[in-house]
Amino acid sequence: MPRALLIVLDSVGIGGAKDAPAHGDAGADTGGHIAEACAAGGGGRAGLRQGPLDLPHMTALGLGLACEASTGRMPPNLDPKGALRGAWGYGVETSKGKDTPSGHWEIAGVPVAFDWGYFPDTLPSFPEELTAALIERGNLPGILGNKHASGTAVIDELGAEHMRTGKPIVYTSVDSVLQIAAHEETFGLERLYDLCRIGRELCDAYKIGRVIARPFVGSPETGFKRTGNRKDFATPPPSDTILDTLTKADRSVVTVGKIGDIFAHRGTGKEIKPNGNDACLSAAIAALRDLPDGGFVFANLVDFDSEFGHRRDIPGYAAALEAFDRRIPEIEAALKDGDLVIVTADHGNDPSWRGSDHTREHVPILSFGRGVAQNAIGRRESFADMGASVLRHLGVGNPGKGMSWL
Ligand SMILES: O=P(O)(O)O[C@H]1O[C@H](CO)[C@@H](O)[C@H]1O
Ligand SMILES: [Mn+2]
Ligand SMILES: [Mn+2]
Fold first, then answer.
1. What separation in Å is there between the alpha carbon of 174 and the centre of ligand 3?
2. Ligand 1 pocket, residue 350 CB under 6 Å
3. pLDDT over 90 (residue 232)
4. How far does residue 33's CA lie from ligand 1's centre (Å)?
5. Ligand 2 centroid vs 301 CA: distance in angstroms?
6. pLDDT of 91-139, one tens digit each?
7. How confident is the model at residue 4 (pLDDT cuts 50, 70, 90)?
8. Which of helix, strand or coil describes residue 350?
9. Is residue 265 domain-shared with residue 382, that is, in the same domain?
10. Residue 32 lies in a domain
């Protein structure tokens, strides 16, 4: 029986979305702009990387062709010029939001047709009743922040005051999120998680997708740094995803990285949550080696988004792409005959763009495996075609959305 591995490179969009102007993102193109910056000499950092974007494996898997099909422009250094291996195309998001749950749920067969709630970019950002209830139920002396912010900037700004006063830093973004940052040692990690559980209950009324714990360490003298103990408290998908369908069909499911959180731990099988792209990819490859026939591994690599996209760090993003690309042969070596791999993304996060938020973009769809013929699968009108293709490949009927290209 065949097996499948789906890897989401979080935020590695490839531009071209027709509805980008509605999000303020007309022209945003994560992959294309990184390649252009690198070719123009703007993607280098001493000790990290220099020169044109070097992605030989993803180029041979059709990344440049997917970019060209998406935007009409072939990014520098991504033209395969020779033999391709695998099937390539790009996906259009039908969900309204450009957030992580919308992207992942749609990939897994559940496009998000409803509107999430969002907190306005005002001061304060949160409704008074919500703030008051959080303070009361969380037994807090108050909160700091209460605004749209970048998570690293807001702990630099308010970390010292947080340590002094014991007030957690509560902030949001253009996404449907309520984020709570607190010091792991002075506030306490478990106390932060408990506070987020309270926040989760309070946020349901506002249709907020996620409450996110953002623990950090450090001191005013040394500066503050977020730790790997981030935890997302998500609302569950409104109907069965491919994870539910596979679980009900008694298939083996392994989820790596943020996937468990994103799907509110429903149908997520064995969850593995190491810290960082490299460790998550290692875990996904190890899971694939042990995966029984008919099984499915679903992995998310979040560093592209959280460490480089939101931080608008082009050299860092380029280096992370190159690090992933170098390990593609390792993925291929773990494959058995009949296995299917799909590499894709959930939204964009153009590091050359203004602000620090996600960008509305198409996503690449790169599919490979020994039995996967070289093929152009073209423009897919929903990310859900990926989930549908996984189910078709695994021989499980699709009760949900999406059209398989297989
Ligand atoms: O700036 P940080 O805290 O990384 O926040 C980012 O992370 C959130 C969840 O992915 C997004 O909504 C964005 O605001
Ligand atoms: Mn994401
Ligand atoms: Mn993000």
1. 10
2. no
3. yes
4. 21
5. 9
6. 999 999 999 999 999 999 999 999 999 999 999 999 999 999 999 999 9
7. very high
8. coil
9. yes
10. yes
Question: Which token pair is 309?
Answer: 């996209």
* Final residue belonging to a domain, choices 175, 208, 233: 233
Closest CA to 100 of 116, 88, 87, 84: 116
Residue 82, pLDDT above cutoff 90: no
* pLDDT (mean) for 301-310: 97
Phi, psi (degrees; rounded to nearest 5) at 15? 65, -165
| Domain stop point among 211, 233, 255 | 233
The residue to mutate among 170, 177, 178, 308, having the most atoms of ligand 1 within 8 angstroms of its beta carbon, is: 177
Q: Please check whether residue 102 lies inside any domain of the structure.
A: yes
pLDDT at 400 over 90: no
Q: Is 175 in the pocket of ligand 1 (CB under 6 A)?
A: yes
* 358 annotated as belonging to a binding site for a ligand: yes
155 in Cβ contact with 169 (< 8 Å): yes
105: domain range?
A: 4-114+238-394
Let me know: does 402 contact 385? Beta carbons within 8 Å: yes
ipTM of the complex: 0.95
Angle 63-259-66 from CA coordinates, rounded to 5°: 10
